[in-house]
Specification:
Blueprint: E1 3-9, H1 13-24, E2 29-32, H2 39-42, H3 58-71, E3 76-77, E4 83-86, E5 91-94, E6 99-107, E7 128-129, H4 132-135, E8 143-148, H5 151-161, E9 166-171, E10 183-185, E11 190-195, E12 199-204, E13 209-211, E14 214-218, H6 224-227, E15 233-234, E16 237-238, E17 251-253, H7 264-285
Parallel strand pairs: 1-2, 1-6, 2-3, 6-17, 7-14, 8-9, 8-14, 9-10
Antiparallel strand pairs: 4-5, 5-6, 11-12, 12-13, 15-16
Helix pairs in contact: 1-7
Length: 286
Amino acid sequence: MERYDIAIIGTGPGGVSAAITARVRGKELILFGSRRLSEKVEKAHSILNYPGLPNVSGAELARAYRTQLDGLGIPITEKQVTAVYAMGDYFAIQTPDDMVESSTVILAAGVVAARPLPGENEFLGRGVSYCATCDAHFYRGKTVAVLGYSEQSCREADFLAETCEKVLYFPAAPHQVQVGSSVEVIPEKPAAILGDRQARTLETKTGKRFDVDGIFVLRASVAPDKLVPGLAVKENHIRVDLQMRTNLPGCFACGDVAGPPYQYIKAAGQGNVAALSAVAYLAEQK
């Protein structure tokens, strides 16, 4: 299996900056994220404090990012990263399709706005999953609930319907719901996950309860401490030092996920520092 020097998770200003610096320093890298880059950037009406680009719109900045990535030959891998495991001298990065190995990791996926549901953390790995492709086989012939947050959630619900006997789809956030006839859409907002040793019931805000064998929480991104077991966080932000190092050797973080202020220029600067720190770490290991 090919092992990258640096894996970067996130295509906002921090991730893009880290990727550019890593490529300029001659490292083999993989960049995970959306080809559309950051939705937050794309929707910005006017950015006033980005040096050299006065009063630039978010859409213009995103186009400039894409142009520079393309010019440097940096492709974007549009796969959701569902887990990152520290394996000692490398990291194993799990996606719905495969595992990717990298000597270092830079986390730049932004802040997860949604708070976990009551019971979500308690039952994670015991009936609660963040990856349909990874865990569908555990629920063959069973009933599952899908908490959908985006159009991607709809596609994963359809995939689950190929394996599970029954799939209940709960639109947990506003989005266009387009699922196949095998998926039952229930217009209720999730409120809590209940169970004993395993997650057994989804309770909605109207007080209704649905008994299921498993619950898939399909947000666009996963809270950092759930994404990377053992990662030190504080108030949902990753703890870093001035070199963007986390408590896990070889793992770095930058941008909004590393804490406020939530500024594009700050994220880009931290991405540069994170990449340089990853390069220095690689040199130390050799």
